[in-house]
Amino acid sequence: MFNAVAENLQPFDKQAKELFNLNKNALVNFLSEIEKRGIKYLDFNPGPIKKDKEKIVKFFIKSIEELSNLNILIDSTDSELIELAIGFSKNKPIINGFSMEEKKLKNILPLAKKYDLSIVGLLMADGFIPRTMEEKILMAEEMINSAKNEGVKSEQIIIDPIIAPLGWDGGLDSNRANLEFLKEARNLFQGVKYIVGISNLTTKSAGGLKKSYFQNIFISILWSYKIDFILLDAFDRDIVNTVRFLKLLEGGGVFSFAEFVS
């Protein structure tokens, strides 16, 4: 069964708006609600921080670990912020992440080796996102080799093939290629794990009103492809229920209609 990752800890998420005023009581409630949903991972994406970077990062990392049992993904393009977060953590967060952009290869990837941490690699380079299965395999191979050359173990590498919005020209074809990639990559890259951000599938202008419908279908397909992690909206009831039902199908409890309609 894949690990669900709550994507909501970001400044523009309505569920987290008050948290970025460093309101600890609000954070207590936020974390409790996520754990009630059976989710064990939380993506911490503070966005660009212009001031009080250390104070903000310290508040979130220390508070999350003090108030919950959630595993943290540090989601940032700022290598200084990532290293601050690692320093404040008593556990082993996941770095999210690097790409084949030179700056990220130079500044972010080495942190995985330095601190012996798992790291997410996004299949993109300087604005280019591979769309075919063959392109994705080639870039994944290059990315994995770069990580290994840096001293990162295969088991610490988590590849994100990048879900394409359905509203994009060729979006459906790109997502079909993602599924083909996941199937092929399992055979080619032993030990490597895989992650996707399911919210990328829909936008306000393309599928927004029916986001749960499309995302739930794709979550179920990704489950059948044995995806390792899915970033999702932990406060979307339909999506959370889909994850819970898939866990039940794998033998994770006793089914009851009441749990899904209450």
Number of helices, counting only DSSP H or I runs of 4 residues or more: 10
DSSP strand tally = 8
Largest sheet data:
8 strands, parallel, barrel
CATH superfamily: Dihydropteroate synthase-like
- Are there runs of 5+ residues with pLDDT below 50, and where? none
Q: What value does the average pLDDT take?
A: 94
- H/E element order: EHEHEHEHHEHEHEHEHH
The 3D shape can be described as: globular
- Given the helix and strand composition, which structural class is it? alpha/beta
Could you please say which CATH topology applies here? TIM Barrel
Distance between the termini: 24 Å
Q: Any guess at the CATH architecture? A: Alpha-Beta Barrel
Question: Mind telling me the C-alpha Rg?
Answer: 18 Å
Strand and helix map with partners:
Layout: E1 3-9, H1 24-36, E2 41-44, H2 53-67, E3 71-75, H3 79-88, E4 94-98, H4 102-107, H5 109-115, E5 119-122, H6 133-150, E6 157-160, H7 171-188, E7 193-197, H8 211-224, E8 229-232, H9 237-249, H10 258-261
Parallel strand pairs: 1-2, 1-8, 2-3, 3-4, 4-5, 5-6, 6-7, 7-8
Helix pairs in contact: 2-3, 6-7, 8-9
Question: Can you walk through the features of this model?
Answer:
By secondary structure, this protein is of the alpha/beta class. The protein has a single domain (3-261), classed as Dihydropteroate synthase-like (TIM Barrel, Alpha-Beta Barrel). Helix content is 45%, strand content 15%. The protein contains ten helices and eight strands. It has helices at residues 24-36, 53-67, 79-88, 102-107, 109-115, 133-150, 171-188, 211-224, 237-249, 258-261, and strands at residues 3-9, 41-44, 71-75, 94-98, 119-122, 157-160, 193-197, 229-232. Strands 1-2-3-4-5-6-7-8 form an eight-stranded parallel barrel, surrounded by four helices. It starts with a strand and ends with a helix.
